[in-house]
Amino acid sequence: xxxxxxxxxxxxxxxxxxxxxxxANDYADDGxxxxxxxxxxxLAGITVDEVFMTLIGVKVERLRQLMAGKExxxxxxxxxxxxxxxxxxxxxxxxxxxxxxxxLGAIVHKxxxxxxxxxxxxxxxxxxxxxxxx
Length: 134
Fold this sequence. Notes:
- The protein is built from five helices and no strands.
- With about 130 residues, it is mostly helical.
- The chain has a domain at about 30-95.
- The longest helix is centred in the C-terminal third of the chain and has 47 residues, at about 75-125.
- It is elongated and about 95 Å long.
């Protein structure tokens, strides 16, 4: 009996990973796999989410045309499906990273606010005796 780990879908995941690594090397800045999507969003005056939605829409439309019988010149249906899946995975990764940044920002804000409150409280001098309050 074959293991689920031997299922052919895992070869697809491997191909997806190889493709996204290769394309990130071509398109993205070192250390930021999302830099090309962020740059495109900035240039177009839209959000990164809207960039992902647009790119996914382009791939879906390409698939529709290819599946209707159009002959590809550059990219086969399989390659388009891999790109589509990678855009969805990258979008999810971007969303999770943004969520982590928001949580981190909230933690930092809370820490700064708490420290500011403590500092302000430390500046308030409460007289301990009648002589100090005088």
